[in-house]
Description:
By secondary structure, the chain is an all-alpha fold. The chain has one domain (2-406): Up-down Bundle (Growth Hormone, Chain: A). Helix content is 80%, strand content 0%. The protein has 18 helices and no strands. The protein has helices at 2-11, 13-32, 45-52, 56-75, 77-84, 86-103, 110-138, 143-172, 175-180, 183-199, 201-211, 224-253, 258-283, 290-309, 315-339, 344-376, 380-397, 405-408. Helix 4 packs parallel to helix 7 (110-138) and helix 6 (86-103) runs antiparallel to helix 10. The chain is globular and about 55 Å long.
Amino acid sequence: MRASTEVDTSAASPDGDAAVVEVERVREAMDANRGSRRGDISPLMTTIRASTGLSFYGASLLTSLPVVAMGLGAFGANALARSVGEARGVALGLIAIALACGARWSTSSGAALLLTAALAGIGVASIQALLPGVIKQRFRMRMPLAMGMFSASIMGGGGLGASVSPWIADVLESWHAALAVWAIPALIALIYWFRLNRRTSDAVSHNDEIARQPVSTVNLWRKRRAWALGLHFGLVNGGYTSLVAWLPAYYQQHGANVASSGSLLGAMAVFQAASALLLPLAAASFRDRRPWLVAGLSAQLAGVVGLVVWPEAMPLLWVALAGAGLGGTFSVTLVTTLDHSDDHHVAARLIAFVQGVGFVVAAAAPMIAGFVRDLTGTFTAAWIMLACSISAMILLTFAFSPRSYAGALSTRAARD
């Protein structure tokens, strides 16, 4: 019965395509709320620091706290799905994001901002952990395309927030309004999500029923592969959180104004979105995703090296390389994670575990970068550390051979 549902859902063009589009809209609206996570705060970081008195390290927590919440929340995503169902879990996540963003209209202290960041991270966690499992089940035959759209919407939404927030702050003369306005796309996404699930109520009810069934007995906490994938995902996102948090501040130190530095972040998001969509499609006909992961990581490394060596020479080129590398690697890493099991339940548990580990790891990156900036007075050392972590990821990528997938999560394999 499950196989039939998967084939029918994926093959039914109108409903299937509509579902893919709705998933993208939900993700775009969620990640347009980069004030709840990263991007729309980042270009305004200098203004927010001046208003709240936060240090560079304290300001970095506005980026890191949501990521920590996303990581810890991902570990509870499967329990949430079993208790309320996947559709309601996503809806609750969107409500949390809308509340967090809306609360920033009247928030003036650094502590209150950090609380809204944590709430938004919890909301994002429920969505981020549940949607890939839905994609694995409903779009098995088009998973690279669906995951590409999933990832591209993250990057595109973030770029929208980074580009538009400084303009809103300038027009309304309020950074509070520039952050609070992103409650609107979260509410719009919530409406789309309810409409989608009303049209496909039978399929959603079936999926929710499956989500409450007993899951595989694979103990991911004891699987080396699960930890390796989590570390890989964490280092990828560590590069992302560091650049999104501190790239505008870095170029503001080089003489750029708030609007132009935010535009650089927006440009990076464009290349991220394009690569997040195109790289999984390029890799779709290849079972071995490692060459594509290495290609994405190499582009990211080249961009970071450019930021260190020639920051003012060709900033758009470095931003383009870093963004393309980040977006493509993010997307293909998720596809590689889902590749490890044909069982929807195992794949959903694995990707939640990988995101849980990964986002906790990623949360440390901007905090470390902010701490290093406070110590040295420059971001150069932080970018060098990032380049070293990317090089380590390239080496780790070679462990993900498709021939190892079956044994990596086997219940009889005590170690891998």
